[in-house]
Amino acid sequence: MAGPVISARELSLVFQTADAPVYALSKVNLEVEDGGFVSFIGPSGCGKTTLLRVIADLEQATSGSITVNGMTPREARLKRAYGYVFQAPALYPWRTVERNVGLPLEIMGLDHAAERIAKNLELVNLNGFEKKYPWQLSGGMQQRVSIARALAFDPKLLLMDEPFGALDEIVRDKLNQQLLELWDRTGKTVVFVTHSIPEAVFLSTRIVVMSPRPGRIIDVIETNLPKNRTLDIRETPEFLSLAHRVREGLKAGHSYED
Amino acid sequence: MSAAPAIAAKPVDREKGNAFPVTVVCLCILLAWYIAAIPMNWVIAGPKIEAAGGGLANVLAFSWNEARPVIPAPHQIARELWKSIFTVAPWMPKSLIYHGWVTLSSTLLGFVLGSLLGIALAIAIVHSKFLSKSLMPWIIASQTIPILAIAPMVIVVLGSVGFTGLVPKSLISMYLCFFPVTIGMVKGLTSPEAMQLDLMRTYHASTSQVLWKLRFPASVPFLFASLKVAVAIALTGAIVGELPTGAIAGIGARLLQGSYYGQTVQIWAALFMGSFLAAALVWLVGVLERVTLKRMGVRP
Q1: Of the candidates B198, B205, B220, which has its C-beta nearest A107's C-beta?
Q2: Does B202 contact A78 at a Cβ distance shorter than 8 Å?
């Protein structure tokens, strides 16, 4: 497809609260290219999740413009342009793994459900767990089910909101590696929200550093790390200098009043 | 995997270990009951005891075996229950099975109607702010009016247009039992987390898909909690509905006849029959709950 998958111009979002308005996003300009892996990183309150939710049409911007696949976010949502992975797995506890993954297929009335479910469970290495209920799985496995669910209807765009934030470091490393392989195999465009510097640097083709009050973009870093990287790359000078630049960006944007 | 020794934790049996405390409490109640029956029945039994020459044996013999005592002794109620359940054909008007069935049938009809009404109201309330604001005060107001005030009017008005027997009684059950179902289901239908709802939004799911695939399954535990309350008060409603017209059948009718003729033993037997029924109904809903939740894969 020609043109960027996501394009935001002077995008702002103001929440009206009882005492004072909160500037969640302030004049954000952003482009996400087809097939890219873009991370939003920043401290809490910097608007990274809000920006993702605006892309997903779960929030509406108050000014500026944004397009997703050349459409408004609402049109893109109605066309089911993206799969969304939340901070928590948000699985439906009364559904087995396969029926959770099949949920979007049921709702959208798509056929070949069995094959799609099998293919996506294989992508997240969960074959054999089809008949399990969510409570029978570990937190990491549950989040992998939710990734398979987001991919089930084969959207070209994957929006991920701190999907591994609640998991321990070891599981997170493993899932980062798996996600990278998955991205490589499927060629999806991924927008990924995180507050972990190593995670952002390891996964991304581009890192968007954000800062709070008002939520804004303060740096955009192209990473250019080799495509077939493993977790070992985190020891290399290239990786460390990228991580350093992200850290400096976060530091510069951070106000020390609080 | 190698054959590791099975160290699976034994599931905790919550029923187990209940028998002893329950028995002790029952025995204490029985004891207190027997003791209390002596002074309470003294008005009737006293003269007879004195005429027989007093003594503990006479005290016990008379005050626990009066035909129309102020309070019957437990064994009298047990004997009456036995007699009216097992020695009479179940279709005879002397049988408590017969009266129990009459009350039970209108209880069940009212329970089903009331539950459906309760669920329907909850669905309407959850989907419309307008309905929520306009209906809720009326629903709550409906329960502030004593059922004893409404029941005679309902029975008499419906009776005057030709509805008698089962239907008016079950309407009273329905009137009582839709309320906990509505309240429970409003809570249940709004119980899904924001993320689970957002997920449906990202799929562009329709309102009815959100209802049937998310809200309704999420509300099932709330539904059963409400149904347990509802089924018990549906029975109360049916009994109350049998009182005002002097119905000839049903547990309520049995209570009424007993009080007309001072048949306290019969009243107490009918009361016990009513509580057995209520306990059985609540237990049945509990079984249904366990089966349903198990089928839904809920963590045991």
Answers
A1: B205
A2: no
Tell me the CB-side half-sphere exposure of residue B251, using CA atoms within 13 A.
27
Asked if the bond preceding A155 is cis, omega within 30° of 0, the reply is: no
CA neighbor of A100 nearest in space, from A87, A88, A91 = A91
Residue in B closest to A56 by C-alpha: B202
E strand or H helix at A140: helix A139-151
Q: Which CATH class is domain B96-295?
A: mainly alpha
First and final C-alpha spacing in chain A: 44
A166 — contact with chain B (CB < 8 Å)? no
Domain ranges of chain B: 19-71, 96-295
Q: Does B291 touch chain A (CB under 8 A)?
A: no
Please tell me the distance from the alpha carbon of residue B100 to that of residue B111, in angstroms, as a whole number: 16
CA distances from A17 to A13, A14, A22, B129, B195 (A): 13, 9, 7, 22, 22
User: Is A78–B204 a contact, with Cβ atoms under 8 angstroms apart?
Assistant: yes
Is the Cβ–Cβ distance between A209 and A246 less than 8 Å?
yes
Q: Is A229 on the interface with B (CB under 8 A)?
A: no
Phi, psi of A121, rounded to the nearest 5 degrees: -70, -30
Beta-carbon separation of B200 and A107 below 8 A: yes
Q: A86 — contact with chain B (CB < 8 Å)?
A: yes
- Type of residue found at A90: A
Contact with chain B for residue A97, Cβ under 8 A: no
Please give the distance of CA B171 from its chain centroid, rounded to a whole number. Answer: 16
Listed in sequence order, the residues at least 6 apart from B96 whose beta carbon sits closer than 8 Å to its beta carbon are: B81, B84, B85, B254, B269, B270, B273
- pLDDT of chain A, 258 residues: tens digit per residue: 468 999 999 999 999 888 888 889 999 999 999 999 999 999 888 899 999 999 999 999 999 999 999 999 999 999 999 999 999 999 999 999 999 999 999 999 999 999 999 999 998 999 999 999 999 999 999 999 999 999 999 999 999 999 998 888 888 998 999 999 999 999 999 999 999 999 999 999 999 999 988 899 999 999 988 888 888 999 999 999 999 999 998 888 765 544
Record: contact B202-A90, CB cut-off 8 A: no
**Tell me, what's the ipTM?**
0.91
